[in-house]
Write a structure and sequence with these properties.
The protein is α/β, with parallel strands linked by helices. It has one domain: 3-Layer(aba) Sandwich (Glutaredoxin). Helix content is about 25%, strand content about 25%. The strands form 3 sheets. Strands 5-4-3-8-9 form a 5-stranded mixed beta sheet. A two-stranded antiparallel sheet has the order 1-2. A hairpin with a 4-residue loop joins strand 6 and strand 7. The chain is globular and about 35 Å long. The mean pLDDT is about 95.
């Protein structure tokens, strides 16, 4: 079960596809964060979702919103996938300790060994304002993300 709306977002530091450390705390007081967990790189539904995210990135990423995606894949897998498919948002490796951030957000699947499709909108104060979780094969409706982001941005 994902962490609940109204809870403080668990802080983390993970490396992106360029091997740079990304700290959730760095966005506190500055940006809203769209945090998107996905099961595995190079898989069907994940590819479709991330392609849609990239194609509509202007509707998400801005001076006010940071997009962070997370899976248990390695930095190296993310780098190859980002380069191949042209992803420009941060793809974070929750590789080791395996799935620790997904566990903190309540979306790690102990049966499969990777995250379910968890999505969170975190406000500038570090509070979760939107949370959803779908099973690995179940695609998400990204219109709900845009609606949640608009509500948080409007205050």
């Amino acid at each position: 079960m994902p962490i609940e709306v109204g809870a403080e977002a668990p802080d983390f530091t993970l490396k992106n596809q360029n091997n740079q450390e990304i700290h959730l705390a760095d966005f506190r007081g500055r940006k809203i964060v769209l945090l998107v967990f996905y099961p595995l790189a190079f898989t069907g539904v994940c590819s479709t979702e991330l392609r849609e995210l990239q194609e509509n990135l202007a509707a998400y990423a801005s001076d006010d919103v940071e997009v962070l995606t997370v899976s248990v894949d390695s930095v190296f897998s993310h780098k190859v996938w980002a380069d191949r498919d042209g992803y420009t948002f941060d793809m974070l490796a929750d590789f080791w300790p395996h799935g620790a951030v997904a566990r903190a957000y309540g979306v790690f699947n102990d049966v499969t060994g990777f995250a379910n499709r968890g999505t969170f909108v975190i406000d500038r104060a570090g509070i979760i304002r939107y949370a959803e979780e779908n099973d690995p094969g179940q695609a998400r409706d990204q219109a709900a993300w845009r609606e949640a982001l608009a509500k948080v941005a409007a205050g």
